[in-house]
Amino acid sequence: MNQEHHNSIINFDLHIHSKASTYKEKGGIVDNSTKENIHILLSKLNEYNVSLFSITDHNRFDLDLYLTASSILAQPDNSYPKIKTILPGIEFDVTFEESMGKCHIIAIFNPVNKNMLIKIEKVINAHLLLDENCSYSKSEFNDILYEIGIDTILIASQHKDINDHSGKHSSLSDTTTKVEEVIKIGYIDALEFQKPKVEGILINNLKGLLPTITLLSGSDCHDWNYYPYHDAINQNKSFYHSKAKILPTFKGLLLAITSPETRFNCRENTSQYFLSGFSHQGKAINFVKGINAIIGENGSGKTTLLKLINGKINDSYVKKIIEKNELKNTTSAVPTKIKYIEQGEIIEKFNKEALFSSNEEKNFKELNNDSFKKMYYDYAENLYKCIESIINKKQIISTLSQYNISYKKNLEVSSYYINITCSKNFSDVQNPHEQPYFSINETINKIRNMAEQEYYQIYKKQLTTVLIELENIQINIKAKWEIIDYETKIKNIIHKYLNDYSRKKNINSNSRDQEIAEYRANRQKVIDYIIETIKINIEDCKWPDAPEIIEGFSRNEKRGFNFIKKASYNSIQMLDDFYLKMFVKEYNSFSQIQNIVSWDEFTNAVRNCTTSSAIKSKWKENFDKFIADAIKTTEYITDSYNKQVGNTLGEMSLSYYRYFTEDSNDWSILIVDQPEDNISNNNINNKLISYFNSIRNEKQLIFVTHNPLLVVNLDVENVIFVKNENGKLFITDGCLEYENEQTNILGLIAQNMDGGKETIEKRLKVYGKKY
Fold first, then answer.
1. Tell me, which fold does domain 9-263 have in CATH?
2. 527 contacts 370 by C-beta, under 8 angstroms
3. Does domain 277-354+666-763 sit in CATH 3.40.50.1820?
4. Tens digits of per-residue pLDDT, 207-234?
């Protein structure tokens, strides 16, 4: 990887003094910190792996010392390879409020060119403080910075609690009682501490403060022989260097200070699964292990690069661009470690209600509606039987007069053949033990299967006891069932032989015998009908009770979300819906249904029914519709606070990114084509960026985007800019702060992304900063 293009974690120190600070220092502690001894300091900095530093004297700027150090570091074969850059700086004494003390503010300047450096020295010399107790007023300080006119980073010393205004440490809180206000307006870019315990105090002081402010350590070294300590006597053994992931440049430091969450306290991604990059016309274009953003105008070939590195190059237009520009994938990774989200994929999955499903994974658990279906099936069956019973009772009574027979003495004689009459229901025996018998068999088989499963082994003793009891019940029910079953079989046999006998008798009987047989058969019919009428009138109709209210609900808690599926019948009495589906308006209440007393009324009552012969089929059809509507499900998602996630495409897209970024096992490389699609800028800035930030030190992210927020505010570590001129691609890459004579990454963002300039300016809101 070209280190010049991409940043890395470096040590830096922006608070070192030289002999130029003599007017404020006693005991000659800076006497040896001179230009002639600069190699002592550089040797120490190299030893402590300091890549970026500044010499910040009290209210002075030693241009000659700066140029000497800079010249040494510019030599390709210098003895200090770990040191990359020195930045010009000054430690100012400034008083904010007249009634209070002064504070130290370190100003780090952008070393644009030698003329500007000369200007720094000239302006400072024109406003020299000669007395060690003197300081600049805030307005004088502002005037000096304005007169210098160079991009500047301001770092205020804060060596204690921000509520301590005792005036003893030249801290920001010693010169103003409004420390938080100064921070909020962005006047100060960072606070400097020297002891770790002070850092802890400041973190607690500033907790919840927006905008957040960067905390930096500074050595405050005066005698270079004892770096990183103050001098031979004052040695802060707990001091440690600040680290940041930056290029060792002014712009790198500026971007770190404006995005402390991503640049400080970070670590290098050590994942073994990553894509190293691709080549373009023989030139290597490298990816970083962190976040890579591919930008450019529409049609510039950005999506082609994603397809190239993901091995999806079968489309003809992709092949054409690859061949014409000599693009080659120079790396590979385990396919299962790559998560690739193509453009439009989220919309497609959203429309198919499969956004949160991956392969065979089902985040919404299926519902078992059997209990609900059985409950209403039984209710519908019993309701039908009751209506049918009422109708039959009325019908039997009203038609009883039709069943009559005249007593004929001359036919009350014996015939040649014996006449045997039998009830029409003789062989139609209902076995009340049949359903319980089969149900208990099913239950026993289920428990036996459970007893064999590994999960239930700890309950095997209890399950065995249950099985013994159930098997005893089964034996008892079976005995009762078998008695009725035998009765049915015997009666069927008798019925068969009686029919055979009657058929043969009819063939061989004379007319007189047949007349006697017919008379006796009609007499039996009248008797049977009277008995049936009596039975029906004796029996009361037992109308079914309303079905219970039951749950139809499933919850799957996963990765900070609750995936909830809810049926329409969940915890709701569905009886009114049942009546509405089954009956017309005039009969859609229980009291009205009880008044049905004829088949014509029943026909008119059943929805969509026109004839009595269609009642059963329409009844089933209406019931099926009721069940279908009742078991329809609604799926929704809540977060860990049980707050429902919205169901719009944008809200679900955002939740989708949060969902899979919280999983650290399934993948190592995320490739996304336009993650900003369907998500508002507000949600990108406040949520999506935080989701990606949470995995930047563990996963590799590579995405195409047109949204500058996902480049600038996400603080991507590598930008790949693609330009297409008549099919020929021009590709530039580097971190946000990278620039040379030909390339300025922030400039490319500002010029080629809608809203890029404004986004950069909002981020670099600190004093006088420009991209």
1. TIM Barrel (3.20.20)
2. no
3. no
4. 888 778 999 999 999 999 999 999 999 9
